[in-house]
Amino acid sequence: MTDTSSALRIVWIYPDLLSTYGDQGNALVLKRRAELRGIRTEMVHVLSSDPVPTQGDVYLLGGGEDRPQILAAQRLRADGGLKRAAEAGAAVFAVCAGYQIIGESFGDDADNPLPGVGILDIRSGRGETRAVGEIVADIAPELGGGRITGFENHQGRTHLGPSARPLSTTVAGIGNDGQTEGAYQGQVLGTYLHGPALPRNPALADMLISWRVGQIAPLEPSWGERLHEERLAAALNS
Ligand code: GLN
Q1: Angle at which helices 24-35 and 202-213 pack, to 10 degrees?
Q2: Domain CobB/CobQ-like glutamine amidotransferase spans what residues (predicted)?
Q3: For the chain, which terminus, N or C, has the lower number of CB atoms within 10 Å?
């Protein structure tokens, strides 16, 4: 990364292992919504063979199949960069396999617990059924409230430890356990929402940007807000 003084540095972790259901759209929407406010951005794609830079502002992880998920967790733990960055205050937005990976532990394909990166106080194991379909949830009031939607496809079920708080309360779908969806701890946030999550929920993208740069001006409602409304209606009527 070049200029580290003023740009919003977006770090997209392991596109070669963790990028199912268009999760890369999260990075693109973050960049776009920052730039529409005149905030300069830098985007770094970190392959699983590369070291994770520690000077990023927002780190993004996507979903993945069981085996790539295990490999990604091993490499991130060995590398240590993501953990150092999160401990230094960077924001993290992790989806599904990425969400499980940043926790304390997650179940492999036979539900043996494997260690995660350990920056979010959650533990994930395998559920009896696969959670597949549209999901709707209400964001925790302390994060500003509002409704989020996404698509979930996971076997994992996630339990929150005392240091993590639920991102939202599940309205339709499963999320963590049928009661809550996602978790956050400081500026480390994880969710089961694909879709991708940030194009479908522009308010969530704006929250991440404001965590790094402070208060930001609202944007005129556009395609993102229309998609949000359309997906909400579809999910609640399905
Ligand atoms: N392999 C994980 C599970 O099934 C995550 C799946 C995903 O990222 N969509 O729970």
Answers
A1: 60
A2: 9-201
A3: C
86 φ, ψ to 5°? -65, -40
Question: Contact 58/86 with Cβ under 8 angstroms?
Answer: no
Whether 156 is in the pocket of ligand 1, judged by its Cβ within 6 Å, is yes
Residue 125 has pLDDT above 50, yes or no: yes
**Three-state DSSP class for 112?**
coil
Under DSSP, the state recorded for 221 is: P
Domains of the chain: 8-237 (3.40.50.880)
- pLDDT value at residue 1: 40
Per-residue pLDDT band at 90 (split at 50, 70, 90): very high
CA distance 67 to 109: 8
Sign of CA dihedral 107, 113, 117, 118: positive
In short, whether 19's Cβ falls inside 6 Å of ligand 1 is no
List active site positions: 96, 194
pLDDT in tens, 167-205: 999 999 999 999 999 999 999 999 999 989 999 999 999
Instruction: Give the residue among 55, 30, 87 at the shortest CA–CA distance from 208.
Output: 30
Q: Which of 211, 208, 198 is nearest to 149 (CA)?
A: 198
Pairing of strands 165-172, 122-139: antiparallel
